[in-house]
Amino acid sequence: MRKIRIGITIVGKDREGIVAAFTNFIFQKNGNIEKVNQNVIKGLFGMHLEASFSKEIDVKKFDSELQNLGRQFEMEVSIYHEINSQKNIAVFVTKEPHCLQSLLDADAKGQLKGKISVVVGTERSLEPLAKKAKIPFVVVEEKDQQEAEQHLIEITKKYDIDLVVLARYMRIMTPNFVWRYPHRIINIHPSLLPAFPGAFAYAQAFERGTKIVGVTAHYVTEELDQGPIIFQDSFRVDSADSLETIKKKGQELEAETLLKAVKMHLEGKLEVSWRKVYTK
């Protein structure tokens, strides 16, 4: 029989006994812990563990007991079942349409092993694209970071999201959100990381006279633009190219590279180990 794999994330105020409580729970269910990672930043505790079971388990009972354990420690618990064949995708956007349009086109053609369940925007610029595709659009306009992320958490829970795609989403995400989706948030960055971090990578590349410009699709961690790299691609810059020309070429490559990364993730062809992404 194929092993049943379950991913569990625990986020909340740091306190003693959390790690022991949740690992013991897995052992009591005859599970084997295959991966475990924990962090504490400014009193916020986050843990992700992956467990496998060689015998059938009552999923509903398992989830209920795990949530009860979370409530005992005042922790928010999220459970991710590998058996879910149809992944729910949330696309986070701001105002650049190229990456979103590429994902919507692929979704409409049935090219994704999943479905785009919701588009989330920091403004309403791209709402018409979502409406045209008959996909719910939710705007998160809160300026306060904590309030905005709490709204995002509510949205991802409502739509039972398995994968978050940052399609030129122009807000920084804190551990309070990122830790809930370990290796399940994919971002596209307009440079060959780790060079030229930040939002103005093309302008930096243009000013420095870069001869090759590229893009990077990577998993998001609490470290800005430092997550495991999934794919990178590049194009040559001619001396006659203007900044606008570079941006246009770059945006086309962003859309292609992000879509490729999303497809591979949904097909279960990517694995992260020791901060590196391997293709299965």
Could you explain the architecture of this structure?
By secondary structure, the chain is an alpha/beta fold. The protein has helices at 18-28, 59-72, 98-108, 127-132, 145-158, 175-178, 201-207, 243-266; strands at residues 4-13, 32-41, 44-53, 76-81, 87-93, 114-121, 137-139, 163-166, 185-189, 212-219, 229-236, 270-273, 276-279. Helix 4 (127-132) links the parallel strand 6 and strand 7. Helix 3 packs parallel to helix 8 (243-266). The model has no long low-confidence stretch (mean pLDDT 90).
List keywords for this structure.
280 residues; alpha/beta; Alpha-Beta Plaits; Rossmann fold; 2 domains; seven-stranded mixed sheet; four-stranded antiparallel sheet; 32% helix
Task: Write a short abstract of this structure.
The protein is of the alpha/beta class. Helix content is 32%, strand content 31%.
List the helices and strands and how they pair.
Layout: E1 4-13, H1 18-28, E2 32-41, E3 44-53, H2 59-72, E4 76-81, E5 87-93, H3 98-108, E6 114-121, H4 127-132, E7 137-139, H5 145-158, E8 163-166, H6 175-178, E9 185-189, H7 201-207, E10 212-219, E11 229-236, H8 243-266, E12 270-273, E13 276-279
Parallel strand pairs: 5-6, 5-8, 6-7, 8-9
Antiparallel strand pairs: 1-3, 1-4, 2-3, 9-10, 10-11, 12-13
Helix pairs in contact: 3-8
